[in-house]
Design a protein that fits this description.
The protein is an alpha+beta fold. The chain contains four helices and six strands, in the order H-H-E-E-H-E-E-E-E-H. It has one domain: Nuclear Transport Factor 2, Chain: A (Roll). It has a six-stranded mixed beta sheet with strand order 2-1-6-5-4-3. Helix 1 packs antiparallel against helix 2. The protein is globular. The model has no long low-confidence stretch (mean pLDDT 93).
Length: 137
């Protein structure tokens, strides 16, 4: 396997498991390019907004952990399927804290340049998440 692909796969693991799952915003700073284009829910945001997103997510799920189920890279892209688990302890998606356990399934695509994520696409199973939080769908 190509060294660059292996490095990008390892950085993806660190970004998701330690950055998001370990609530370590400094990891996001280190791996996301400040010019990163983050595609989420039909909007495109910059890499600098990731820490605010992490803070809001962790306020709702302070004990969240991330588990990588599948990860592979090719050229400058890495694809990852992950499960984030936690207890809903704060407002999220307009839903008040429920105390319910959730397992959030997601697929992410990351494009790397010079060892940093320069573009990402986050696709989460929001219907299942809302159902886990007790919302009627």
């Amino acid at each position: 396997m190509n060294e660059e692909v292996s490095r990008n796969e390892a950085l993806t693991r660190v970004y998701l498991v330690k950055g998001w799952g370990g609530n370590r915003p400094e990891v996001l700073d280190r791996i996301l390019s400040p010019a990163c284009r983050r595609h989420l829910h039909g909007a495109v945001t910059g890499g600098t907004q990731a820490k605010a997103t992490l803070a809001a997510f962790r306020a709702a799920f302070p004990d969240a952990t991330v588990e990588i189920e599948l990860l592979f890279g090719k050229d400058d892209l890495v694809v990852c399927r992950s499960i984030t688990s936690g207890i809903h302890r704060g407002d999220y998606l307009g839903i008040s804290a429920s105390g319910r356990s959730v397992r959030i399934s997601a697929v992410d695509f990351f494009r790397f340049s010079d060892g940093r994520i320069v573009e990402s696409w986050h696709n989460v199973d929001e219907v299942a998440l809302r159902r886990d939080l007790g919302q009627q769908i």
